[in-house]
Amino acid sequence: MIAFGVLLISAVSVFVAYNANRTQGRILVASVWPSLVFGTSTASPEGLPQVSLDLLNRGVGPTRVRWAEVSYKGQPVSDLLRCWRHAVVRWRTIPDYWS
């Protein structure tokens, strides 16, 4: 009879430990919320003309970026230099601060 009681208490202890571990894992997953923020700018902090694309993680925990794509007029850009040349031809000049 005593052996059955000890066995029952051991089984309940294992069940409680398993559920506590599972709950702790769920709490950990829920506490990590990555938040990816995209921003653009046409001026540096000093006020000089500059084109920048920013991708920042403002959340809690790591962010995994599996792929990213830059597009121009709905078409993916595979060569940023070619895109820049196209813009220069379109504008017909290169601004002094970019030459």
Helix content: 40-55%
User: Which sheet architecture does the biggest sheet show?
Assistant: 2 strands, antiparallel
Strand order in the largest sheet: 1-2
Distance between the termini: 91 Å
Tell me what the structure shows:
This protein is α+β, with helices and mostly antiparallel strands and 99 residues long. It has 2 domains: 1-31; 36-94, no CATH class. Helix content is 42%, strand content 21%. The protein contains 2 helices and 4 strands, in the order H-E-E-E-E-H. A hairpin with a 2-residue loop joins strand 3 and strand 4. The longest helix is centred in the first third of the chain and has 30 residues, at 2-31. The chain is rod-shaped.
